[in-house]
């Protein structure tokens, strides 16, 4: 019993990804090019193919970057493809009416292109003229749809020569939305899909895409290709793969190097080659420093035989694991051979790009990220290459990821080295140990460089926020406060790197308890009921070597209070005197002190040394309060200092300029060592 086929079922089971929305149109164009080849043979230049974009009469509104309400292109509703090829001969017509026909199998056709028409369009109509066996001109016209399949209608008129006009109408919205909109973009996609017809010996017929303007694909070829590299061939497990290598002009809108996997003289898939060969990033430069983008069109009988029916992918495994037969070829096998050939073809431009990328990294490390300098040579040995045009933030992420990789490998190597202690000849073991220690030394130097670099950045930020903005306004004290120490936190809530008290005094890093913008009542060291909030309050146990003070040695703690005022604030008075406020905090801590942060009782501490720092610009009112407190002016005129005998407290009023200058001077040697600017 003969089997029958349901056209509706075949269309339903046919796959057409939204990313390939123009594939039905491209299939119609390829059919037209093949018909021209059959008619004209080696005189293909006499062929003509015209693609007309049809748009609806309704305007769309574009809500793109230019803002809402901008008048955009009208929606595309269909296409007309006209050629002067051989036409729908009886053989061609018979093939069209047979699903999965192998009539043009030798040309790589699968007989499924017309199913894609019905997948994306509501209505298909075809008019054609051909020569019969006697050479007389004959015509035919029919409609093609899911419901009525092939429906022949009256013969058309107006043909004086052979050819075909295919009308794809009713572009379905789910595909129309994902398709290119402009005539330039559509022409470019047609060109790239059918580029083999333009690259082959003998060239291509005249092909134009028409909208409100006419775009010639033959002219696009001239504008598109900068120069052609030799066509080469690679062999993979006995199968031959042809590579058409092109250098595209720098004005090309897509600057990424690409590999086009082709079958049946058309592009099936496109692969981005960026970074898959060291130095292959975006545009390269030839010997005359002219920029170009490399693309490769890969074709093979093997690819023709393994392309899927919908021509959107190949039935080839990405990789073959384990022992296989010699003819088991994977995409990875093919890609590897192609990349080796590309690296050979582009050896000089790639070497120049790698040198340019290396210079980019060195410049970035020198000026922006000195922490990577100690390990830079080791990162280069990992095969890291970068695009010379890479953004700073992307380059930072790349270097950081590879530094982490280096650290992970060092940890693994250290475990292996120490596990071999005593089981490996001493000379071999010592050599391996020395290599491991060299890596660790470089990583440690990188960490130190990162620490110093962070200090430089913090000072730069502080320098900016103490100055007026474009509106003449100054930052609130909150901004400066948060930079020096996170607000409303204490030392039990933040890590050691969260505060930047070193800006004021390096010794403040070593404390028993530290609180920022918290009420005295909430601090375990005070026992106070006061809800007043010193900006920063710190205690440190003394009479102990500072690097080993951990909060257990008693009896006397020291007290540090930091008050921060808004830049250029000029309202210091008897009621709002930051000096008196600081001394009042000291008094309250002394009166209420009961426990250290670690829970040890503090004996009477009325005589505990206290240090008060006031960070503020020296406005007239603040200078008046400094003089009233009998403080002495610093030699540079940017601050005041003195000792308050009744309160047993050292007081220092530091202007923001002096704060930055002092911190920079203390760190100058480190900045100079890393090549960082000191001002």
Q: What's the arrangement of strands in the largest beta sheet?
A: 7-6-5-8-4-1-9-10
Q: Regarding CATH, which class of the largest domain?
A: Alpha Beta
- The gross shape turns out to be elongated
Indicate the structural class.
alpha+beta
Largest sheet geometry:
8 strands, mixed
* Residues in helix, %: 25-40%
Which parts are unreliable, with pLDDT below 50 for 5 consecutive residues or more?
Answer: 61-70, 105-110, 540-556
CATH architectural designation of the largest domain: 2-Layer Sandwich
User: What is the CATH topology assignment of the largest domain?
Assistant: Heat Shock Protein 90
Structural account:
The structure is a single chain. This protein has 679 residues and is of the alpha+beta class. It folds into four domains: 7-60 and 72-216, Histidine kinase-like ATPase, C-terminal domain (Heat Shock Protein 90); 229-319 and 327-345, no CATH class; 351-452, no CATH class; 477-673, no CATH class. 34% of the residues lie in helices and 21% in strands. The protein has 18 helices and 25 strands. The strands form four sheets. The protein has an eight-stranded mixed sheet with strand order 7-6-5-8-4-1-9-10. The chain has an eight-stranded mixed sheet with strand order 18-19-20-21-22-25-24-23. α2 (23-40) packs antiparallel against α4 (113-120), α13 (392-419) runs antiparallel to α14 and α14 (426-465) runs antiparallel to α18 (656-674). The longest helix is centred in the middle third of the chain and has 40 residues, at 426-465. The radius of gyration is 39 Å and the shape is elongated. The termini are far apart. The relative contact order is 0.06. Mean pLDDT is 78; it is low at 61-70, 105-110 and 540-556.
